[in-house]
Structure formats: structure tokens, C-alpha cells
Write a structure and sequence with these properties.
Layout (H helix, E strand, L loop, with lengths): L18 H6 L6 E6 L7 E4 L2 E4 L4 H4 L11 H18 E6 L2
Parallel strand pairs: 1-4
Antiparallel strand pairs: 2-3
The chain binds S-adenosylmethionine.
S-adenosylmethionine (SAM) binds next to loops.
Length: about 100
């Protein structure tokens, strides 16, 4: 059986997929700079000291097609931890707009 080689990204190609999938294909220290605007979890709010989902408001709830921006806080923190770990692996400089 033929050994599988790791697929890597093609420069100047747009990947419309989960960023973690794309990042996994990028070799370490491959990029000079990343500029990104990650999800802000706009539909999750703190009320009476507890995280809760925001009332459905058109401007926030329908802003992104097919994306609710409403993760439980533990999931949101875990997602950003994974993404930031990957970004730091592949790039020297990161602009993370939060
Ligand atoms: C704060 S918005 C960025 C908006 C963008 N700067 C613009 O001007 O349209 C965050 C974006 O991340 C996308 N997103 C959320 N989770 C993602 C993921 N796992 N991988 C890639 N993109 C994701 C959302 O669909 C949303 O479009």
C-alpha cells in the first residue's frame, strides 16, 4: 500500500471550510502574518452573572448565513484555544481582532 503524504495548502487559493481543517494542512512557521476576525459569539450574553443566549434579534441572529454565533462558553473558549494554538504554530505574527 502507498504511504499517504500530508496534503498542504496551495498559495492564493480560497478554502471555504472550517479554519481548523485548513490550518491543519499548513506546515509550521509557513506564514509571515495572519490577519483574522474570529467569531465574537454575539448571541451569547451574561445576565445575572450567568451566560445565556440572547433574545433572537434579526441584526445579530441572521448576520452570518448558516452560523448562529451562539456557542456555549466552554465550547467557545475551547475553539479559540485550538485556533490560537494553530495560528501560533504556523505564523510569526498574528492580528486577532476580538
Ligand atoms: C466576526 S465574523 C468576521 C467577519 C468578516 N471580517 C467580514 O467582514 O465579513 C467571524 C466569521 O467567522 C466565520 N466562522 C465561524 N466559525 C468558523 C470556523 N470554524 N472556520 C472558519 N470560519 C468560521 C463566521 O461564519 C463569520 O463569518
Amino acid at each position: 500500500m502507498e504511504a499517504k503524504t500530508k496534503e498542504i495548502v496551495t498559495v492564493n487559493k480560497i478554502y471555504n471550510e472550517d479554519c481548523l481543517k485548513t490550518l491543519s494542512r499548513i506546515p509550521s512557521n509557513f506564514l509571515d502574518c495572519i490577519i483574522t476576525s474570529p467569531p465574537y459569539n454575539m448571541n451569547l450574553r451574561i445576565r445575572d452573572g450567568k451566560y445565556c443566549s440572547r433574545q433572537i434579534v434579526k441584526e445579530f441572529s441572521t448576520k452570518y448565513h448558516g452560523f448562529a454565533d451562539n456557542m456555549p462558553i466552554e465550547e467557545y473558549n475551547a475553539f479559540h484555544t485550538k485556533v490560537l494554538t494553530e495560528l501560533l504554530r504556523v505564523s510569526k505574527v498574528i492580528f486577532y481582532n476580538v
